[in-house]
Design brief:
Length: 225
C-alpha cells in the first residue's frame, strides 16, 4: 500500500516534489510515525502542542519575538493562570469531557453484546468481533488508578484494562469489549460473594445443629446418672 502511494506521488507532476521529500524523510522509518506500529501509544498531542504554540505566539506575544527571559516567564505565568481559571470554570459548570462522553457511549453499546461469547485464557479474556472474524484480547493492566476517566457502572477507569481492538489500541478509548469484561467480572464477583455467604450460612447451621445435639446428649447423660 505504501509503495503504491509513493508511486502515485512520483508519477504526478503536482506531487512529485512532495513524493521525493516523503521518500527521503518518511518512507524508511514508518515504525516511528505510522499508527499501525504505535499500539497503545495514547493520545496524539501534536495538534495540542501546535495549538498551544499558536496561542502563546499570537495571543500572548502578539506575534512578536521575545528575547528577554523575564518577559517570557511573565507571559508563561499569565498563561498558566488563565488555564487554571478555565479549568475551574469547566469544573463548576460540570462539563463532561469528550473522552468521558465516548466512554459512556461505549458502555451503552456493550450492553448489546453477549457475555457468553467471552472466553477466559491465560493471557486474559478473548472476545469475538461483532462485525468481522477477528478475536480481540482484553488484559488487566493494574488494579487501581487515580484518573478521572472512570466508568461508574463498571467501577473501572480507562487505564485498568487494554484491548487489541483499534478503538482502544489506536484511539485510546475504553472500548465496548473492556466494558463487557468489566460487567462479566462484576457478575462473577457477585456469584462468588453469594456462594461465600451461602457457605457461611450452611456452616453456621451445622454448628448450631451440632451444639443442639451435644446439649441433648449432655441432658440425657445427666438424667441417666
Amino acid at each position: 500500500m505504501i509503495q503504491n502511494f509513493q508511486i502515485s506521488l512520483l508519477s504526478s507532476g503536482n506531487t512529485q516534489e512532495f513524493g521525493q521529500y516523503f521518500q527521503k524523510c518518511y518512507l524508511h522509518n514508518m515504525e516511528s510515525w505510522a499508527y499501525c506500529y504505535r499500539l497503545h501509544a495514547g493520545i496524539n498531542t501534536n495538534m495540542s502542542i501546535e495549538g498551544m504554540h499558536q496561542t502563546i505566539k499570537y495571543l500572548y506575544l502578539n506575534g512578536r519575538q521575545v528575547r528577554r527571559l523575564d518577559k517570557t516567564i511573565n507571559i508563561l505565568s499569565k498563561l498558566i493562570k488563565d488555564k487554571l481559571f478555565e479549568q475551574l470554570i469547566t469544573l463548576n459548570k460540570s462539563k463532561i469531557s469528550s473522552k468521558l462522553r465516548e466512554l459512556r457511549k461505549r458502555h451503552k453499546t456493550s450492553l448489546n453484546l453477549d457475555m457468553d461469547t467471552i472466553v477466559m485464557s491465560e493471557m486474559g479474556w478473548e472476545i469475538p468481533s461483532s462485525s468481522t472474524n477477528d478475536i480481540y484480547l482484553v488484559q488487566k493492566n493494574k488494579p487501581s488508578c487515580d484518573c478521572q476517566l472512570v466508568c461508574d457502572l463498571c467501577e473501572s477507569c480507562l487505564h485498568s484494562y487494554s484491548c487489541t481492538c483499534l478503538d482502544n489500541s489506536i484511539r485510546w478509548n475504553m472500548c465496548k469489549h473492556i466494558h463487557l469484561v468489566c460487567q462479566f467480572m462484576k457478575g462473577h464477583q457477585i456469584q462468588d460473594t453469594n456462594a461465600d455467604e451461602e457457605h457461611i450460612i450452611n456452616t453456621d447451621e451445622v454448628k448450631i445443629k451440632q451444639a443442639t445435639e451435644q446439649a441433648k446428649f449432655v441432658e440425657f447423660v445427666s438424667l441417666v446418672i
